Every structure is written in structure tokens, then in C-alpha cells.
Amino acid sequence: MSDLFFGNDGRRLSQEEIVSQIHDYMLQKPQYAYKIIVGSDSQPLGETADFVTAIVVHRVGNGGIYFWKRMAGTRVFNLRDRILKEVMFSLETAVEILKVLKENISIKFDFEVHVDVGANGKTSELISEVTGMIRAYNFPFKTKPESYAASSVADKHA
Predict the structure, then answer these.
(1) Which ranges of the chain have pLDDT less than 70?
(2) In angstroms, how far is the first alpha carbon of the chain from the final one?
(3) Cα–Cα distance measured from residue 2 to residue 83, given in angstroms and rounded to the nearest whole number
(4) How far apart are CA 110 and CA 90, in angstroms?
(5) pLDDT at position 143, please?
(6) Which residues contact 120 (CB under 8 A, 6 or more apart)?
(7) pLDDT per residue as tens digits for the range 113-123
(8) Which helix (H) or strand (E) holds 156?
């Protein structure tokens, strides 16, 4: 997560600024339940793809904020390769952000990884492989249609 992310207001933010904004957001209404979710999506561009990873802070029942970054021009060979790269970008970000959040955030939160695969469509044959990768990291996860951090938030910037 050493790369800069953008806030939902369009500003570039460092890891410290992201953690500070998450902490401040949660302190505004500490009585709510919070979920912090990481998800990635991609846009194929011939032999390459642009990848977007999003960190979503969901104030359950009361909106949320998010942060995102783009990795442009990553070489991909096929749909499976692209989906696996999405998952790896999400897992790398999840490991890094969760470690920092646990050290700096005192308010309880749930954590999830969202993946842009579902039981229907071209990605259905990848569900077992992708969810196995996430289980290996011991993260809870959601797939389509519940994976809004990947299929809506990250997709918005892909």
C-alpha cells in the first residue's frame, strides 16, 4: 500500500492520511457498526489492463467513504490471469491496511475482501480458485452480487 490512493474527494492521500481519515470518520459516529472492505476491478485494454483497488469504509446503515488507486498498463494474458491479478492486488492491500488499522484504530470493525466473480457468467469457473486464495489469508469475502467494493466502487474508477 505504499502507492498513493485517492480519496473519494479526488485528493491523493498517503497511507497515514488514509488511516487518519478512517479514524476520524469512525470517531464521528462510534455507535455504528463498521466494515472495512477491500476490492479490485480491472478494465482490459488489449494485452494489458488497468486495475483499480478500493478501500471502502462502510458505516453500516449510514453510508461510507472510500479510497482508490489505479495500476495502469499491467500485462495480462486472459480472463483468468486478469481475475487472479485483481485478487492479488486486493490481498496485498488488505494485508497492509489491516495491519496498520489494527495498530491505529481503537473502534471495532469487521473486515472483508470483495471479488468481482459470481456464480453466473464467464467468471463462475474461477470462484473456487479465487475464494481458496482468500481463505488462505483467513479473510472473510463476498462474491457477486454482494461484492460492491469490487463490482461498484472499484469498477467506477476502472
Answers:
(1) 1-3
(2) 18
(3) 22
(4) 16
(5) 97
(6) 144
(7) 999 999 999 99
(8) helix 155-157
